[in-house]
Amino acid sequence: LVGSIDNDLVGADMTIGTDSALHRILEAIDDISSTAASHQRTFVVEVMGRHCGYLALMAAVAGGCDYVLVPELPPGKDWEEDMCSKLKAGREAGRRESMVIVAEGATDREGNRITADDVRQVIADKLGEAARVTILGHVQRGGRPSAYDRWMSTLLGCAAAREVVSMEPGSEPVIIAERHNRIRRLPMMEQIAATRAVKDLVAAHDYLGAIQARGASFGSMLELFETMSTPPAEPSTNADSTPSSTARPKRVAIIHAGGLAPGMNTAARAAVRLGIDHDFTMLGVYGGFPGLLDGDVHELTWADVEGWVGDGGAQLGTRREVPTIEQLYALGRAIELHEIDALLVIGGYNAYLSAFRLVTERDRYPAFQIPIVCVPASIDNNLPGSELSIGTDTALNNAVVALDSIKLSAAASHRCFVAEVMGRKCGYLSLMSGLATGAEKVYLNEEGITLKGLAADSERMVESFRSGRSLYLVIRNERASVNYTTDVLAHIFAEEGKGLYDVREAILGHQQQGGSPTAFDRIMATKLVAYSLELLAGALKRGEPTASYVGLVGGKVSNHPLDRMNDDLDRDNRRPRYQWWLGLRPAVALVSQNSGTLALEDVPDFGEAVDDAAGDQR
């Protein structure tokens, strides 16, 4: 198992500790950005990454920074002028602060190291500005592990232990790693050789080879960062210039719907910046579909959204209402009145239902014959066509922080806590927070709660406390059962304990929806929106009113036809028919209760994930 915050193992998407380090870096960037904006200053931030620029690149994307230097792609000989030109353009476009991220292993093309102080000196010499330097250092290695680093590491540990006891003598050594949101067996010597080869590729000036070795996502994020960090060019005012086309720019409207999800602002910001690059006029619909009915539609510029990258909440607002049949005519008129050529719908389950209604009513309302793309944004993680939704990682981390505090409050006494986690009828947040916090029991809507099961659970709890346990954590999905509520469970466990331990309830509530989006949610929002705008651009160019919903499946972004959405949905329970994470349920009992097995090859939802590297071709 590879523990490295640098994320430098070729063949793995994320090594143990990387996500937590990225959390530390992003927290620092957000804090620095506040003081930088207030004083209109430039900051140079050095992050770890001796031979791998993952932390620097992803922090730059997630933090909305201006320039980044990574080891895999040393800058050209005129990099000083290029950097200062971008910083100056950003200020002229209205930015109140500038931020340059430098990986500790950054060099020029002659192999000379570029330090944060070197960058500071360049800014002073060429821009006459006294930039501030912050070297984060070993703070990146410390602090609370992120939710991802807890639940994925738990699963990696389970898989590795099982590998040890099942391997035949003389078997090839392997690395157990995460790849495409799945656990894989990677040939150890081959992956180590490939990892060591990256610095040799850079030394040989094969920068494309070095970037490709880091994976397709690394290269695509480099390209995305270049666009996102460059202010859009102003329309030409040269009287002698002739426009290439007399047609007006296509007008693409951004609309939020459904419940609030952290990362909606990041997605809207990315949509505006990337939409301008597609020569679209970007419109913001304030207040969801009711706002569209009310005509609350306004053009958005880069200056309007530039500061939204790390903001929680939703500046455009969001509403849960699904347009009724009676409202469709007025909705069509609003689309025509505002000359909307395409819709980018960012939101949750009700957002998908709203878009689906428009598509199914196209025969009656021609105004709906426009391209539509839905982007998943929901803390419930209950949307079709995507294994993860924007906002889910933030909600999970918020839940884990709260549960950690609950556990500390119970450490001085014999106590059982029954904690209620959000998610409606999707148990993703409950299960993953249980894995991340070492919960003894997790109740899900997908499994339900029975009296017989409660009796066995109560008996196990009593025996645990008699054997010396001082804390027992039970997590209940908010809709695990209609009758066995959090209060009822607490009373049952208290009655069975007969004073052996105390029982307390904790309903985490809407704190799971609050706070700034995590790095993962910001990066995913940017990636999904970039893909969605490519879909819209293609549809508008072809003149086809295609409608789809996009998502992340097996580490890759894909799209699905919106008119076939019901094929993927369990409408009664408001969740996808297939939920990849259900195969992880046995890990809770295996780790916290020392009972059962995680028989990976016998669990269809997870079994295909544990395979040799050739399984990636599936």
UniProtKB/TrEMBL annotation:
The entry's keywords: Allosteric enzyme, ATP-binding, Cytoplasm, Glycolysis, Kinase, Magnesium, Metal-binding, Nucleotide-binding, Transferase
GO molecular function, one term: monosaccharide binding
Pathway linked to the protein: Carbohydrate degradation; glycolysis; D-glyceraldehyde 3-phosphate and glycerone phosphate from D-glucose: step 3/4
Role noted for this protein: Catalyzes the phosphorylation of D-fructose 6-phosphate to fructose 1,6-bisphosphate by ATP, the first committing step of glycolysis.
Localization in the cell: Cytoplasm
Entry EC number(s): 2.7.1.11
Protein's UniProt keywords contain Metal-binding: yes
Catalytic reactions on record: beta-D-fructose 6-phosphate + ATP = beta-D-fructose 1,6-bisphosphate + ADP + H(+)
Region (Disordered): 228-248
Pfam entry (one): PFK
Phosphofructokinase domain location: 2-162, 251-535
Family: Belongs to the phosphofructokinase type A (PFKA) family.
Protein origin, superkingdom: Bacteria
Chief location bin: cytoplasm
GO biological process: canonical glycolysis; fructose 1,6-bisphosphate metabolic process; fructose 6-phosphate metabolic process
Organism: Actinomyces naeslundii (strain ATCC 12104 / DSM 43013 / CCUG 2238 / JCM 8349 / NCTC 10301 / Howell 279)
Cofactor: Mg(2+)
Protein name in UniProt: 6-phosphofructokinase
GO CC, any one term: 6-phosphofructokinase complex
Comp. bias (Polar residues): 228-247
